[in-house]
Design a protein that fits this description.
The complex is a heterodimer of chains A (328) and B (293). By secondary structure, chain A is an all-alpha fold. Chain A has one domain. Chain B is mainly alpha-helical. In chain B, 51% of the residues are buried. The chains are: A mainly alpha (328), B mainly alpha (293). The interface between A and B is large, with 41 and 44 residues.
């Protein structure tokens, strides 16, 4: 009986939402990131971290693997890029376009496929992402500029404050990241967030309790597409152009690897995973262009040895340590 | 649009079937692996790519196309069994998404390894001389190699069918697909059957890559497109159904060939539209069992 109780607390503590200090502390640390890393790399980390938070909500907290998140990221990037370039849209309008289009796409894909079994949904989402990739590559070439990517996007400004320089841009992206980090924290505490985790743990049981699992998974996908689209449009602002690779399957795959590396289903996992991944990628590609070999091999090793990722494994170790001390 | 002579259409049909045959081999391997192991093999196309490189190496070593083809399948099949034994076995019984993720990791790493060994540029594989001619039937011209692909696929599928239906091992494989626990209870080492089944499925992928190699030459990055095609065929045909893989493969082959002819720029997109359509009309795929998806 005693054993049961400790197990219950363990599970509860493992999946408890983080304390407020973690959220504010993370934002505080991120304020000084440009002092340690180069500013462009730091900006890139934040953009991918936003993407990762949304992806983690779907994979880590809901337990749905989408292998086609590049579709939402790329569609967000292209939507804002097209709005900036052809319609002279202002920054908020462009970002709104980059967020809405992926959410609509998520509604479409979700309606078609979210009911499917896990692996089946992964395949279908990937196929839809490839569909978008090939559409942008060739049939829509006259708008998207095909393989060259969408260039000549004007430098953005917010309140007549130019985002052309790296440092102002970093702090602009940081403000957005902070908002999204806070939003994620609130979502996880909400009844909706609890439902997501209930489904991941035992979908049949949640269904038996009378919850409509399909609808909750559907909304989880749409919210996740919001994050991905936001990250995509920030990426457009950051780069000043939209590369075709934003829609490429490896972008989805990279997101999967980053999230698993950091620890799926942990609050800070995506941020840590993105940071470590991009840092490794930057370092290894200085030595050899064949960084995919190392990254792929590392990923295989993680799946086999530490499926919890960095943060998941750390949390487990911490729990084990606390249990040991408590039992003494 | 309406001025296309019938013999051109017949030739497109023929090209479509030949392309479809490659897809059939590819996806039947995927289907066997999924049916037996419940693993979606993300590295399926990567193994097809290995098959294309293996046939390139073996042909340059032996000088014979047939020897190259057979040894390519055997080599990649053995590589597949080693992969299953080392990497997939530890993951059975855990989260069903882990094998998919693991094979995804392989599909990122292996092409880079091939780039290091063989270089970035693809390796051309020559047509075997006996098959480089054409067959002329009235006003229809059929390239010999594509005819060979069709006949060869037919022979391969019939042998596969006979193997699964008539041999003892085939029977055990079919039984394990249905209920592996029961087979285990009867005293058969199912773990070994799984290893063999993975090798068989991957061998079929290698066969697809190897016979496709003379038409598109072996390149390191060909794998992902082949994986994607196998996914689409699987969704269209129905997950884990061999019949679905055959009909779906031929259908997608025809769709790609005809769109390439009518609207070239849509040729890569067409199969995804086809998939979306099937998902709307018949979500479990043409031959899928209800509830398996």
């Amino acid at each position: 009986m005693v054993n049961d109780n400790t197990n219950a607390t363990k599970v509860q503590e493992l999946h408890a939402p983080p304390k407020p200090i973690v959220v504010y502390g993370t934002i505080f640390v991120l304020l000084f990131l440009p002092l340690v890393l180069s500013t462009p790399l730091a900006t890139e980390i934040l953009i991918w971290a936003i993407f990762g938070m949304g992806f983690n909500l779907l994979l880590g907290y809901t337990g749905v693997l989408s292998f086609g998140h590049a579709a939402y990221f790329g569609l967000g990037a292209y939507s804002s890029g097209l709005a900036f370039r052809y319609l002279d849209a202002s920054l908020p309008v462009g970002i709104a376009a980059g967020v809405l289009a992926p959410m609509l796409l998520a509604c479409f894909i979700g309606a078609l496929a979210i009911r499917k079994r896990g692996v089946y949904f992964a395949m279908i989402s990937l196929a839809f992402a490839q569909m978008l990739y090939f559409m942008a590559l060739s049939p829509l070439k006259h708008i998207t500029r095909g393989e060259d990517g969408l260039t000549h996007i004007p430098t953005m400004a917010i309140f007549s404050f130019s985002l052309g320089k790296p440092l102002p841009l970093y702090y602009f992206v940081l403000v957005v990241t902070a908002i999204m980090l806070f939003a994620t924290w609130r979502i996880l505490q909400s009844p909706f967030g609890k439902l997501l985790q209930a489904f991941r743990e035992n979908e049949e049981r949640a269904k038996a309790c009378g919850y409509n699992t399909t609808m909750v998974k559907f909304w989880s996908l749409v919210i996740s597409a919001f994050y991905a689209g936001l990250a995509g449009s920030l990426n457009t602002v950051y780069l000043g152009y939209v590369p075709l690779t934003t829609l490429f399957w490896l972008t989805s795959g990279t997101m999967v690897m980053m999230t698993i590396l950091g620890g799926k289903g942990t609050f800070l996992g995506p941020l840590v995973g993105v940071g470590v991944f991009l840092f490794l990628q930057n370092t290894i590609s200085l030595i050899t262009p064949r960084w995919e070999l190392f990254v792929g091999a590392m990923f295989v090793a993680i799946i086999l040895l530490f499926p919890g990722g960095i943060m998941g494994t750390l949390e487990e170790k911490l729990m084990a340590y606390r249990m040991k001390r408590a039992s003494k | 649009m309406f001025e296309i002579p019938w013999n051109v259409i017949a030739m497109q049909f023929f090209f479509g079937i030949a392309l479809g045959c490659i897809f059939v081999l590819l996806s039947s391997g995927m289907s066997i692996i999924f049916g037996l192991l419940d693993v979606v093999n993300f590295a399926h196309g990567t193994f097809a790519m290995l098959g294309a490189y293996a046939v390139f190496v073996m042909i340059s070593l032996s000088g014979s196309f047939v020897v190259g083809l057979v040894s390519a399948v055997v080599i990649v099949g053995i590589v597949g069994m080693i992969v299953e034994f080392l990497f997939l076995k530890p993951l059975y019984g855990k989260d069903p998404l882990l094998p998919l993720l693991l094979t995804f990791g392989l599909s990122v790493a292996i092409p880079d390894l091939i780039k290091i060994i063989f270089g970035l540029i693809g390796k051309p594989v020559n047509y075997p001389e006996a098959l480089s001619g054409t067959l002329v039937l009235g006003s229809i011209i059929l390239p010999g190699y594509r005819l060979f692909i069709i006949l060869f696929t037919l022979v391969a599928l019939i042998s596969l069918w006979l193997f699964l239906k008539r041999s003892d091992l085939g029977m055990i494989i079919r039984a394990s697909t249905r209920d592996s626990l029961m087979v285990q209870t009867l005293g058969i080492n199912v773990s070994r059957i799984w290893t063999f089944g993975f090798g068989l499925g991957v061998g079929l992928a290698a066969l697809a890559g190897a016979i496709a190699a003379p038409m598109m030459s072996a390149t390191p990055d060909m794998g992902v497109d082949m994986t994607m095609t196998a996914f689409v065929v699987t969704v269209v045909g129905g997950l884990g159904s061999l019949g679905g893989a055959i009909v779906g493969g031929l259908l997608i082959g025809l769709v790609v060939a005809f769109t390439a002819f009518v609207a070239g720029e849509y040729s890569s997109v067409s199969m995804y539209f086809c998939m979306a359509l099937i998902l709307l009309v018949r979500p479990r795929g043409l031959f899928g069992e209800q509830g398996r998806e």
